[in-house]
Write a structure and sequence with these properties.
Blueprint lengths: L9 H9 L7 H11 L4 E4 L6 H15 L9 E4 L3 H14 L7 E4 L5 H10 L3 E4 L1 H10 L9 E4 L2 H6 L3 H10 L5 E6 L4 H10 L4 E4 L10 E7 L5 H11 L5 E4 L3 H13 L4 E4 L5 H12 L5 E4 L1 H4 L9 E4 L6 H8 L9 E7 L4 H11 L66
Parallel strand pairs: 1-6, 1-7, 2-4, 2-5, 3-4, 5-6, 8-13, 9-11, 9-12, 10-11, 12-13
Helix pairs in contact: 2-3, 3-4, 6-8
């Protein structure tokens, strides 16, 4: 189906055409008409399916056709990470380039005063992370009383990161009459509980099976000793001339160490994680997109939601403790119809984590030993240690713990206010 068959205005169709798109993806085909009708939706779509445009385009058309609160915040989009907030805000600006609306992006790690100054000038759309949005609410520097549309993007990740209390505080001050759009990679029990109390007679959309990676991702496992992972990674990047590689580690310290080692190997590399300043994270991502940096080493939280056009290679330098995170990681490649490769370097310590991933995917991932890097069969598996902030298990059926150690649970309450009770994590 073409975009010009979805009922979008001429200004939006012109912007879409300028972005180089003509055919809508399945999530866009299903979500855009429903949102234009004013319906609440609960949508699950794997990464790289075009869901951002799926809610951005009808959101902008709503603003265009309902001009009653001009220069008031009429649309609020919540995202779990700074990088995703920045990317969503850029999409709003790009698709709204021929419309007179102003957008503000609000997240931590940068000056709040600059954000306050922009809000005072008047904006129509705010894209925010929950933590910094609460800061503005507490300081009285933002007015959400005229919000007509609320979008929760990557809602499952926001719950995982402990933002449910922040979200509940935001919901309390929003107008009761509004349109709500909830996008999530999965329909977990916690997501359904949130949806039941947030959405009004929602239409449920699911364009891909739960926890199913993109079809165009070619996955492979390379068994290798832990001590030789870095050597193998450098070898593959160099001999196969990989130009752009996103590499995942489990910890911030590990990301820093690997980036330095790869740099010592003669590869341009940078690390991106929560301990980096926002300026450093933005610069590293920009350099990677512009091919000034060949290898970007990232932790899961920093990389969630990264949108990198035509990214060819994702490497799991270390497998994640939670199997679902593997799907999110490899979803950074093979986006928007492009092919991609997902390579996992697996040592003997990670055999159980690999089994959890394959059980989740309900398939066996092909395995290939690279000549010269066969693992030493005499090496015995050692328990994996988990640093602070990592989840407690590799078993996908166990829930992550909050900072204070409490297991997630529903707390009940009034309609549209119930939450899972997870703890807040700073954004």
């Amino acid at each position: 189906m073409l975009f010009n068959e979805l009922g979008l205005t001429a200004e939006l169709l012109r912007a879409v055409d300028e972005q180089g798109y003509s055919k809508a993806t399945p999530i866009q085909q299903r979500a855009i008409p429903l949102i234009l009708e004013g319906r609440d939706i609960l949508a699950a779509a794997q990464t790289g399916t075009g869901k951002t445009a799926g809610f951005t385009l009808p959101l902008l058309q709503h603003l265009q056709t309902s001009d009653k609160n001009r220069r008031s915040i009429r649309a609020l989009i919540l995202t779990p990470t700074r990088e995703l907030a920045a990317q969503v805000a850029e999409s709003v600006r790009s698709y709204g380039t021929h419309l007179p609306f102003r957008t503000a992006v609000i997240f931590g790690g940068v000056s709040i005063n600059t954000q306050i100054a922009k809000l005072r000038k008047g904006v129509d759309v705010v894209v925010a992370t929950p933590g910094r949005l609460l800061d503005h609410m507490q300081q009285g520097t933002i007015d959400l009383s005229k919000v007509e549309m609320l979008v929760l993007d990557e809602a499952d990740r926001m719950l995982d990161m402990g933002f449910i209390r922040d979200i509940r505080k935001v919901l309390k001050i929003l107008p009761a009459e509004r349109q709500n759009l909830l996008f999530s990679a999965t329909f977990s029990n916690d997501i359904r509980a949130l949806a039941a109390n947030l959405l009004d007679a929602p239409v449920e959309i699911e364009v891909a099976a739960r926890n199913k990676p993109a079809e165009l991702v070619k996955q492979i496992v390379h068994p290798v000793d832990k001590a030789r992972k870095r050597e193998l990674l450098s070898h593959r990047i160099g001999t196969e001339n990989w130009k752009q590689v996103l590499v995942f580690t489990r910890t911030k310290h590990g990301a820093n160490r690997l980036a330095k080692q790869l740099t010592d190997d003669g590869l341009t590399a940078a690390a991106i994680h929560g301990n980096k300043s926002q300026t450093a994270r933005t610069r590293a991502l920009s350099d990677f997109k512009e091919n000034k940096v060949r290898v970007l080493v990232a932790t899961d939280i920093a990389a969630r939601g990264l949108d990198i056009d035509k990214l060819p290679h994702v490497v799991n330098y270390e497998l994640p403790f939670v199997a679902e995170d593997y799907v999110h990681r490899i979803g950074r490649t093979a986006r928007a119809g492009h092919e991609g490769h997902a390579v996992s370097l697996v040592c003997v310590d990670e055999v159980r984590l690999l089994a959890d991933i394959e059980k989740l995917l309900q398939t066996k991932i092909p395995s290939e030993i690279i000549p010269g890097y066969a693992p030493d069969q005499r090496v015995k598996a050692e328990p994996l240690t988990q640093g602070r902030g990592n989840r407690a298990t590799g078993n996908r059926n166990n829930k992550p713990r909050s900072r204070r150690g409490g297991a997630p649970k529903n707390t009940g309450g009034k309609p549209r206010r119930r939450s899972s009770g997870r703890q807040r994590r700073a954004s």
